[in-house]
Amino acid sequence: QVQLVESGGGMVQAGDSLRLSCAASGFILDYSIGWFRQAPGKEREGVSCISSSDGRTYYADSVKGRFTISRDNAKNTVYLQMNSLKPEDTAIYYCASSAYCSRDTKFVASWGQGTQVTVSS
Question: Which pLDDT score is estimated for 30?
Fold first, then answer.
């Protein structure tokens, strides 16, 4: 299984931007890579995903227009650019690999360790 390592989290103010990185040990084109997040007391939810087959991207309604997922095949890295951050974006962000994009965590094959994003108002 591919190993995933996230980075780029931090503490910012509302309206600021952050870019998360997910570095994969394997060839990322073999996998669909998604970003999930989990806020305290809430279930883990799908945020965005980029498909291995055609590069199609998917976003949760709550982040559409603010977040952008992309990948650098040469670096085996997937990015999540997060703009116009809101306090409700505060969560631990995880990247995950799967055969195809899905919001359902049961299809995830590998998880990263997570990176904390905190947005203050």
Answer: 84
Q: How far apart are CA 33 and CA 8, in angstroms?
A: 17
Are 9 and 37 a contacting pair, CB within 8 Å?
no
* CA distance linking residue 95 with residue 110, whole number of Å: 9
93, β-bridge pairs: 37, 115
CA end-to-end span of the chain: 39
* Residue reference for tokens 């299984």: 1
Distance CA 120, CA 74 (A): 35
**8 A C-beta contact, residue 3 and residue 25:** yes
The pLDDT-based confidence of 61 (bands split at 50, 70, 90) is very high
The token pair at 9 is: 């989290």
Among 64, 81, 63, 59, which Cα is nearest to 72's?
81
